[in-house]
Predict the 3D structure of the following.
Amino acid sequence: MRPALEVADIFRRHGAAFRHAHAEHLGRTERRVMAAIEACRTATLGGHVERCADCGFTRNAYNSCRDRHCPKCQGLARAEWLEARRAELLPVPYFHVVFTVPAPVADIAFHNKAVVYAILFRAAAEALRTVAADPRCLGAEIGAIAVLHTWGQALHHHPHLHCIVPGGGISPDQTRWVACRPGFFLPVRVLSRCFRDAFVCQLRAAFAAGELRLSGSLADRADPATLATRLDELARIDWVVFAKPPFAGPEQVLGYLARYTHRVAIANSRLMALDDDQVSFTWRDYRHHAKIKVMTLSANEFIRRFLQHTVPHGFHRIRHIGFLANRQRTAKLARCRELLAQPSPEPLPARRWQDRLYELTGQDIEVCPCCGGQMQTYVVLAPCSPPRPPMWCDSS
């Protein structure tokens, strides 16, 4: 069932005014995302007419934009990704580790997304692998799934990584599984320092290579001496890294991943009202016992905050680390199962996307909602204007 209010409704009503007001600063990625969300499941992208073979009931089914920033287009992609991850779960505890950068770094990241977000992934991966490899901590090769989030509940820019990590790893000689201590993964203070040092080092290198754009509000940091001083200050403070207690079991791991992967800055279900040019939505205030509150912003400010969280075209927001890295995952997971005496999983059966959608939503789109008959394609609807798949179909 369609929500009463969608992000697309806000874009369609106020998007033109926002584009006009921010014409000089609105980038290509933001314009593409706005156009995709506005066109999603409308006649603009075309579709088809379905008719029930029994009662004659008809309905229009319009095509989706499939943009990864669209709140309506992530459900099926998330279900398929989770199904693949289910087969990779090991019979060990799993931990949730979060890496967060200080506000001054977040400011630089906002104007240099591709460069700084990539540094965030690399620094977190280096910290995890380095600390885990230390015999005083674990002494093993570990694996992890890292998911980039750039938002907080109020839609402010807050880049951080959520990592799901098996509680153990493969010994250096590849002959045994090294389990972590019960309820404890790695020392957080050591992780934090290692992450900070790796991040600052890579940020210095990126600036020296001319990869950072420091203009506008960051112009005061463009001077090498000034930036060096700022980075020295960042290298002396504690950065926020925390690890939560282990999950209760594999199903809880999958439930967590379902909430955190393939997400956008705000779900349509959180939108409450669009009155004139005011948008109201719910948010969770973690500073006050996670109390649910209502925030009201102008439509212009809401769109601005939403578009802060677009990521560069082709940038991967979900990455795999260590023995879960793509190039070696199959062989390494097979070795992990062997060491843990876990049988190999059954291959995933081939299924139609309609069946996967039914499992996800409980709605069978091939069944007539009036009489339960079979819905069949009656007429194909051509797009109202030529679609642009290479620009809109931006996958994770």
Notes: DSSP finds twelve helices and 13 strands in the chain.
